[in-house]
């Protein structure tokens, strides 16, 4: 299971991290989020040396979700050096997600 982050620790865990961080913006009521969640966890486990993977519950952390303009979930953003460098919106099968993330995990 990927690490949960909150409004309170987002800066320390994501923006100031030394390697790219994939943030999975999700909510418990979101069916597609629950489908893609295990895939995101797998990618994180398989590529832990290159990419940190965390989850942010948008219901509980509205400040951060609003700050990044998250209107549709699931949304997966890759942050590098404190900036969004990739946005993936919507559930994808694992091969498609790996392809989208190839520059970070390849």
UniProtKB/TrEMBL annotation:
GO terms for cellular component: cytosol. The keyword Transmembrane helix does not apply. SUPFAM superfamilies: Thioredoxin-like. The record marks 31-32 as: Contributes to redox potential value. Disulfide bonds join 30-33. Signal peptide: none annotated. The keyword Nuclease does not apply. InterPro entries: Thioredoxin, Thioredoxin-like_sf, Thioredoxin_CS, Thioredoxin_domain. The record marks 24 as: Deprotonates C-terminal active site Cys. One of its GO terms (molecular function) is protein-disulfide reductase activity. Keywords: Disulfide bond, Electron transport, Redox-active center, Transport. PANTHER family: GEO12009P1. This is Thioredoxin.
């Amino acid at each position: 299971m990927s690490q949960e982050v909150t409004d309170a620790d987002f800066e320390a865990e994501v923006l100031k991290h030394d390697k790219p961080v994939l943030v999975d913006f999700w909510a418990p009521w979101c069916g597609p989020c629950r489908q893609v969640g295990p895939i995101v966890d797998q990618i994180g486990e398989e590529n832990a040396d290159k990419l940190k993977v965390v989850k942010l519950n948008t219901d509980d952390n509205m400040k951060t979700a609003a700050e990044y303009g998250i209107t549709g979930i699931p949304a997966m953003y890759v942050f590098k050096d404190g900036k969004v460098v990739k946005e993936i919106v919507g559930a994808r099968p694992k091969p498609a997600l790996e392809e989208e993330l190839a520059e970070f995990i390849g």
